[in-house]
Amino acid sequence: MRQIATLLIVLFTLAPLASRAENPAPYPGTKVVETGKPFARYVKDLKAAIKANAMGLVAEACATCGAKAIGVTIPGNRVIMIFNPRFAVRMLAASEAAGIEAPLRLYVTEQPDGAARLTYRLPSRVFGAYENADLDKMGAELDVIVAKIAADAQE
Questions:
Q1: What is d(CA 100, CA 52) in angstroms, rounded to the nearest whole number?
Q2: Which fold has domain 24-154?
Q3: Domains of the chain: which residue ranges?
Q4: pTM score, two decimals?
Q5: What is the pLDDT of residue 75?
Q6: How many whole angstroms separate alpha carbon 145 and alpha carbon 124?
Q7: How much is the pLDDT for 26?
Q8: Were both Cys, which of 1, 39, 105, 126 would link to 110 (CB 3.0–4.6 Å)?
Q9: What whole-number distance in Å separates Cα of residue 78 and Cα of residue 55?
Q10: What's the confidence (pLDDT) of residue 27?
Q11: Is 46:69 a contact under the CB 8 Å cutoff?
Q12: 68 conformational bin, left if phi > 0, alpha if psi -120 to 50, beta if neither
């Protein structure tokens, strides 16, 4: 009887955790693209698309690399940060506070089947929070560029 009671306690304790599904797009204006491409190939193609669309690769964070450094293996995981000085100048002229939003982040994760998933926030939503017409215009322009980068990396 004690075993059954213990089992029921464990089940009732863990049940809420099992029923909670992760929201892959917790912010409005988040775009999620299932690429269907192997992770490493997609990262390479994404970097080429960034360059081809006149955006700069500002930085790259590699959680997979960090985990490996401490002896842990995790699926592919990269945050690729992009921007262009011409947008930086416009952004800062419109709002110094908006400077925290640059560079834009493209998040690439390896899925269980080995394919890459791209997640990013639409620039128009990122800069739209500032309620500034110049940033709204720039965000809309960047939406087109980032969508083109994502599409080009799919080819």
A1: 25
A2: TATA-Binding Protein (3.30.310)
A3: 24-154
A4: 0.83
A5: 98
A6: 11
A7: 73
A8: 39
A9: 17
A10: 82
A11: no
A12: alpha
